[in-house]
Amino acid sequence: MITERILKSELAAKVITPAQAAAFFKDKMVVASSGFTKAGDSKAVLTALAERAKLDPLKVTLITGASLGHGTDGILADAHAISLRLPFQVDTIMRRAINSGEVLFIDQHLGETANLLKANNFPKIDIAILEAICIEQDGSIVPTTSVGNSASFAALADKIIIEINTEIPFSLKGVHDIFSPGDYPDRREIPIVNAASRIGQGTIPLDTDKIIGIVFTNIKDSPADIAPQDEVTAVIARHIVDFFTTEVEKGNLTNSLLPLQAGIGKVANAVLRGFLESDFEGLTMYSEVLQDSTFDLLDSGKMTFASGSSITVSSDYYEHIFNDFSIYKDKIVLRPQDISNAAEVIRRLGVIAINTALECDIYGNVNSTHIAGTNMMNGIGGSGDFARNSYLSIFVTQSVAKNETISRIVPMVSHVDHTEHDVDIIVTEHGLADLRGLAPRQRAEVIIEHCAHPDYKAELKSYFDRACARGGHTPHLLEEAFSWYTSLRQHGTMKPVSAEKVEFRA
Amino acid sequence: MITERILKSELAAKVITPAQAAAFFKDKMVVASSGFTKAGDSKAVLTALAERAKLDPLKVTLITGASLGHGTDGILADAHAISLRLPFQVDTIMRRAINSGEVLFIDQHLGETANLLKANNFPKIDIAILEAICIEQDGSIVPTTSVGNSASFAALADKIIIEINTEIPFSLKGVHDIFSPGDYPDRREIPIVNAASRIGQGTIPLDTDKIIGIVFTNIKDSPADIAPQDEVTAVIARHIVDFFTTEVEKGNLTNSLLPLQAGIGKVANAVLRGFLESDFEGLTMYSEVLQDSTFDLLDSGKMTFASGSSITVSSDYYEHIFNDFSIYKDKIVLRPQDISNAAEVIRRLGVIAINTALECDIYGNVNSTHIAGTNMMNGIGGSGDFARNSYLSIFVTQSVAKNETISRIVPMVSHVDHTEHDVDIIVTEHGLADLRGLAPRQRAEVIIEHCAHPDYKAELKSYFDRACARGGHTPHLLEEAFSWYTSLRQHGTMKPVSAEKVEFRA
Ligand SMILES: CC(C)(COP(=O)(O)OP(=O)(O)OC[C@H]1O[C@@H](n2cnc3c(N)ncnc32)[C@H](O)[C@@H]1OP(=O)(O)O)[C@@H](O)C(=O)NCCC(=O)NCCS
Ligand SMILES: CC(C)(COP(=O)(O)OP(=O)(O)OC[C@H]1O[C@@H](n2cnc3c(N)ncnc32)[C@H](O)[C@@H]1OP(=O)(O)O)[C@@H](O)C(=O)NCCC(=O)NCCS
After folding, report:
1. Domains of chain A
2. Record-annotated residues binding CoA (chains A, B) (predicted)?
3. Candidate from B92, B261, B264 with most ligand 2 atoms within 8 A of CB, to mutate
4. Cα(B498)–Cα(B506) distance, rounded to whole angstroms?
5. Which residue of A313, B30, B166, B450 is surrounded by the most CB atoms within 10 Å?
6. What 8-state DSSP symbol labels residue A500?
7. From the CA of B502, how many Å to the nearest CA of chain A?
8. Statement: residue A205 has pLDDT above 80
9. B485/B359 Cα distance (integer angstroms)
10. Which of A323, A268, A272, A270 is nearest to A298 (CA)?
């Protein structure tokens, strides 16, 4: 097995156990790990690091591509092993540690982390842990189910630990396309001209002298949690398909649209499924995460090519895809996240971006990250990279949350991740607001009319009318703009509570 | 004169008066005009249109590159000739009409207007008015002191009126570099690899059959209002020069830094002047507007090349520069604004972006546009194009406004144009906050400590501490976050008013 997976034979001597690898870490180190939306993450070494931290306390900075699987973020947070985390996470325990202030978190555009590291905006990476299928004769590595920031980590880290995952079939080799735009001031173009462009090499080059250990694992990626499609998400998907059908009829787009990007979450997955029942053909994807729905579209023949930075699918799909990956070999490419999310490429290809909002306001500003303006959910992820630079930026959201006590269309969002400039279309189960070419006051009317839940429409309209009476380009009543959150805190609902009830509570 | 300026001789028959040109416009038309930060704008036809509107009411949509000179926006607003305005303006009268709701305004990233027009996000342009030095034999035109969106307008408009400005010397010919990345889905790379790259042609191609009139003018551009440098702006400039000196010492940057961008406003101009007294050499600029300070830097030899979309200078500089433009011919290039502000190029070159904020909050979110979250000032301009994609994004602002009654560092900005992700450094006269690699709670400490005015520091600190006690990744007290604006409305100051005084007023 070792000789099969380590083709540069002198490196075989570096094979160690996860516990031995964990011993390399020291307090205050900056640690980088492969992993992007639960795919291709470190499965053995980070867990061993958490084990060690329980006995021998230490705290490190942890930088990844995006989220980790197997509850690793939670295990590390529970072991109090993390002082600073970036650029994204989706873990309940880690989230709690971040919101309590125990773990500092830097929420970053996923396309920018590599740039910021190269610009010396962070301390140097001490150790990078990179999951790989194998080490080639030239010492370069073949990544697994994600590329994420691994190529940048390999270039920038002082020392490297490789996790060879024997569970990942060799057939995945060739799906990766590793390219670096170079360093300032001599960066060059990223010559991608369509989703299928291959511009780099199949492996991540690295200086094997940096390798301090090689660990073997055989653990699959965590499966994606795919919520079953429900009526609400199906309706949202239909609104979007109808919208594109009309755009094609108008001659604004052809029947193969432009490359699609879809964010994480059940709504985004449902929306992509919606395209299965559409008349579109020859679709392509230029996205971050290739999900179950991507493979449905490829299988159906409706999609011809999908570019991403990771493959994150549910268990059934995992079996299906990796059983015979050769079917997908020429239909998929996995890229570094500074390429999959590059402003340059997203704008050039004219990507159609579909992301999920926690809440939107009446002027079309979007909050993707902060519950009630304060508590971090996951992070902005790639939503900003895509929303800003896309041909069309669509945000989807259910109109309410938590049993209708929360309206996800509010007078003013409690935190802004995407400004109105970067939001073209908002869709809820109640309808689609096409905001293109509209000024703020017009946007408000369309959003309230098409997207708000009926129980909140009158209050939104009242706020907007009273704000307009006071005036301004973007009319607001600042003293009242956040009163819905105060209501929620005090009365458990954003719905107007009758005067009597308020008195009683007070 | 006509034969000198109209080299395609059969077009000479199309020469008309401004009043005749004004007669072409009809109610509800979409009109586009050249002009970027007061340079190269329509001087005769738009004014004639305003005259006509007074007698024969009509309302049009007006799209430009950026702001117009000669009070034209105000003249048009006074004549009630505008229903919708985009993407930027700086006029007192127009601003009032926008904030009252009489004129609808779409505030846009200046790098995106051309993309949005090409993506059919707006109705078709009926008539474009383009200022030119001359019409070449092949029918293409040489723009004047700005390029702005003129090349896109020429391609997209149904009909075209040319304003030949005989005041602009022929020597400016050759300074323009017109390039289009093409149309979806076949857009290609913008092959600029440094500020001085020339990638296109010297003139704007157009279909001369679209020309419905040619008007002659001899009116200079409006001069830039340059506020005299004062102690406050000089101190801000010194903080920035000191910061870069340290970055060079650390080896993060070379002595020629990376290409500079500087926004509009007196602070930005003062900051560029600050580089005159620095030890940096071989500086370049990749910006939008070339201001007085750009020419000082070129004259001093400290700057070797400047790329922009317009030349907007004060009267003295105007004389100096255009008297013998040959000195600058190989040191300057003027580009279309979708190229000067292209995300692709800004990121590739690693531009250092310096823009002005109306206000910043303790977490580093920036408001560039909305006074008290409501009233439009000018527009986001190019600040978002640069802040998002730059190597370093710096925002400068005085710590207070209006006689210290307003703190420009606030608990939560009343409108977000640039999220914390896109803001690396904030500078006021009190100091520089280097936010790179910091999480929100750390950012707050540094911003309050280094940037806030002493009179507001204790209140900011109190807000932050109390918010932290409640918890969260980005601690806020939503019920109090905007109380400073309410104070300002009620008591004329953001400073805490003693209880007694409040009682008295209430
Ligand atoms: C925004 C985001 C959290 C939505 O995820 P989702 O799974 O589709 O959203 P849901 O509607 O199921 O909401 C998730 C949870 O937040 C709660 N929630 C949603 N909106 C809320 C609001 N405005 N206030 C409070 N809670 C809210 C929901 O009730 C739900 O909690 P529950 O499961 O306990 O009921 C997710 O898309 C995200 O993290 N986006 C940012 C990153 C990104 O966009 N990446 C895209 C490129 S990868
Ligand atoms: C933000 C911007 C308006 C600042 O301009 P400036 O001239 O440097 O700013 P000043 O500090 O002189 O402030 C301008 C006015 O706003 C007022 N002001 C500033 N901050 C304020 C605040 N927070 N609340 C209320 N008024 C404020 C000032 O008092 C001043 O008014 P006055 O002249 O009547 O006293 C200007 O830079 C801008 O429009 N930026 C957005 C576009 C942009 O950044 N383009 C960059 C690429 S071109």
Report:
1. 1-217 (3.40.1080.10), 231-490 (3.40.1080.10)
2. 263-267, 378, 382, 402
3. B264
4. 13
5. A313
6. H
7. 17
8. yes
9. 12
10. A272
The residues that bridge with A367 in the sheet, in sequence order, are A359
Show Cβ contacts of residue B144 under 8 Å, excluding neighbours closer than 6 positions: B34, B39, B40, B131, B132, B133, B165, B168, B172, B221
How far is B56 from A237, CA to CA, in rounded Å? 48
Bridge partners of B204?
A: B141
Give the contacts of A323 (CB within 8 A, at least 6 positions apart). Answer: none
pLDDT tens across B64-115, in order?
999 999 999 999 999 999 999 999 999 999 999 999 999 999 999 999 999 9
Catalytic member of A136, A163, A288, A420 = A288
Instruction: Give residue A377's Cα distance to chain centre.
Output: 12
- Round to whole Å and give the CA distance between A346 and B425: 27
- A469 CB-contact burial (10 Å; exposed 0-12 / middle 13-18 / buried 19+): exposed
Instruction: Decide: A263 in ligand 1 pocket, CB within 6 A.
Output: yes
- Segment B184-203 mean pLDDT: 97
| DSSP one-letter code for B215 | E
| Cβ contact B298:B324 at 8 Å | no
Least confident of A266-270, B286-290, B322-326: A266-270
What is the rounded distance in angstroms from the CA atom of residue A190 to the CA atom of residue B5?
41
Q: Which ligand is nearest to the CA of A111?
A: 1
Question: Quick one: tokens of B379?
Answer: 């527009």
A419 sits in which H/E element:
none
Asked if the Cβ–Cβ distance from B485 to A476 is below 8 Å, we say: no
User: What's the CA gap between A100 and B240, in Å, rounded?
Assistant: 35
Distance of CA B101 to the CA centre of its chain: 23
- pTM for the full predicted model: 0.97
Whether A266 is in the pocket of ligand 1, judged by its Cβ within 6 Å, is yes
> What are the residues facing A334 on neighbouring strands?
A176, A308
What's the CA-to-centroid distance between A175 and ligand 2, angstroms?
51
Whole-angstrom distance, CA of residue B342 vs CA of residue B288: 11
CB B83 within 8 A of CB B76: no
Which positions ≥6 away from A386 have C-beta within 8 Å?
A261, A263, A341, A346, A351, A353, A355, A393
Contact list, A439 vs chain B (CB under 8 Å): 84, 104-106
Atom of ligand 1 nearest to the CA of A268: 8
Mutate to test the pocket of ligand 2, among B94, B261, B358 (most ligand atoms within 8 A of CB): B358
Question: Smallest Cα–Cα separation from A405: which of A499, A496, A481, A495?
Answer: A495
A438 CB neighbours in chain B (<8 A) are 106
**What are B245's two structure tokens?**
């000196």
Q: Do B476 and A101 touch (CB under 8 A)?
A: no
Is there an atom of ligand 1 within 6 Å of A405 CB? no
| Partner-chain contact A474 B350, CB within 8 Å | no
Long-range contacts of A76-83 (CB under 8 A, 24+ apart): A76/A46, A76/A49, A76/A50, A77/A102, A77/A103, A78/A50, A79/A50, A79/A51, A79/A53, A79/A54, A80/A53, A81/A49, A81/A50, A81/A53, A83/A28, A83/A59
Give every CB contact of residue A189 below 8 A, 6+ residues apart in sequence.
A181, A344, B189, B191, B193, B348
What is the tens place of the pLDDT at every residue in B47-68? 999 999 999 999 999 999 999 9
Choose the closest CB to B344 out of A106, A123, A343: A343
CB contact under 8 A, A184 and B421: no
Is residue A389 classed as helix, strand or coil in its secondary structure?
Answer: helix
Catalytic residue of the set B112, B131, B136, B288: B288
Residue of chain B minimizing CA distance to A184: B350
Ligand 1, residue A367: give the atom nearest the CA. 1
The reply to whether A288 belongs to the active site is: yes
Give the Cβ contact number of residue B462 at 10 Å: 12
Cα separation of A290 and A29, whole Å?
32
